[in-house]
Design brief:
Distance between the termini: 30 Å
Bound molecules: NADP nicotinamide-adenine-dinucleotide phosphate
CATH superfamily of the largest domain: NAD(P)-binding Rossmann-like Domain
Order of helices and strands: EHEHEHEHEHHHEHEEHEHEHEEH
Number of domains: 2
Largest sheet: 7 strands, parallel
Number of strands: 12
Shape: elongated
Strand order of the largest sheet: 8-7-6-9-10-11-12
Length: about 325
């Protein structure tokens, strides 16, 4: 039986490629930029793309693959893929929701603890020998018991809220509509009202055009002077210059950020901040979760090839 032609795009872990090679007639590209270099017959034969990465995959790329029927994204966020362009070409899109919720939520909590408890600076203090020469480092700040504000109580937002509730925090959230939650969680209809009523504003929105700058300058201005912003969603969801202005001026206390508008060459203003804990987009980056994401991506391709319903369809 002839194998289905699948094109993998992106940089995959060593365990992801062998199963695709075994099951499909696989062509491998490290980025969509390589599409132009593929032979036209090979491009025409491709029925499914296993996509991984944040480079745009839009109409121009799809038009280079005239036989394409499925784009299986590695990741829950599919803002790099032009889903409208895919739908217009009858191309189905899938993503990998839920399998990464725990890790992204864990990182949000980890970053907030790192920021509040000065973990990075205190470890450097110890390594430099300052503990013996200068004594104890400066006091840190307490996370437990403060007011949490979740911007976007979706799958990941809910996991973050559950963790923050376990830290005895009062839970506030903004979603476009009120959600079913444990008793006492407070919904705010306006993002500004959420910002004004929490100490830790954690952004867990989807990325893409619809939420660009959702955490606007006016939302950031509504935050209190002792408050902290945390972003594990996408850099696009926050008005980045407005956030940088607030951090540089000390109008908010700090930031814990895993994502940036431009990655990996983030705005150099971030690197000068002394009140931010920054991570290089590590939300789902554990061996366990990345294996789960790869497995779900391949399960979607397998369902497509078998003519079965897709497991986690986007369109
Ligand atoms: P989800 O369950 O779909 O939740 C998304 C949230 O975004 C919901 O609260 C939803 O609001 C809100 N939203 C969607 N469209 C909106 C719009 N037009 N206006 C306002 N709010 C809107 O998604 P998820 O699985 O939690 O994932 C969230 C995002 O996390 C992903 O899209 C991805 O970008 C990001 N992520 C980051 C990492 C990382 O490494 N840092 C890893 C995985 C995911 P409602 O509650 O009103 O429906």
């Amino acid at each position: 039986m002839t194998k289905t032609v699948v094109l993998s795009i992106g940089s995959y872990a060593e365990w992801d490629i062998p199963p695709m090679r075994a099951d499909y007639d696989l062509t491998e590209l490290s980025s969509p930029a390589g599409l132009d270099g593929l032979d036209a017959d090979r491009r025409a034969a491709v029925r499914a793309v296993a996509y991984k990465g944040h480079s745009p995959f839009g109409a121009a790329q799809m038009d280079l693959l005239p036989g394409l029927e499925l784009i299986a994204n590695f990741g829950v966020g599919y803002d790099a893929i032009d889903v409208a362009a895919a739908s217009a070409r009858n191309i189905r899109v899938t993503n990998t929701p839920d399998v990464l919720n725990d890790d992204v939520a864990d990182l949000a909590i980890g970053m907030l603890l790192a920021l509040n408890r000065n973990l990075t600076a205190n470890e450097a203090w110890l390594h430099r020998g300052d503990w013996s020469s200068k004594g104890d480092p400066q006091l840190a700040r307490k996370l437990s018991g403060a007011r949490a504000g979740i911007m976007g109580l979706g799958r990941i937002g809910r996991e973050i809220a559950d963790r923050m509730a376990a830290f005895k925090m009062e839970i506030h959230y903004h979603s476009r509509s009120r959600k079913e939650t444990p008793e006492g969680w407070i919904w705010h209809e306006r993002p500004e009202d959420l910002a004004a009523n929490c100490d830790y504003l954690v952004v867990a929105l989807v990325g893409g055009k619809a939420t660009e700058g959702y955490v606007s300058r006016s939302v950031i201005e509504a935050m209190g002077p002792d408050s902290v912003i945390c972003n594990i969603s996408r850099g696009t969801t926050i008005d980045e210059p407005a956030m940088l202005d607030a951090l540089e001026a000390g109008r908010i206390r700090g930031a814990a950020l895993d994502v940036f508008r431009v990655e990996p060459d983030l705005d150099p203003r971030f690197l000068k901040l002394t009140n931010a804990h920054l991570q290089p987009h590590q939300g789902s980056a554990t061996v366990e979760t990345r294996k789960g994401m790869g497995a779900l991506q391949r399960a979607n391709i397998a369902a497509f090839v078998a003519g079965k319903p897709l497991l986690t369809a986007v369109n």
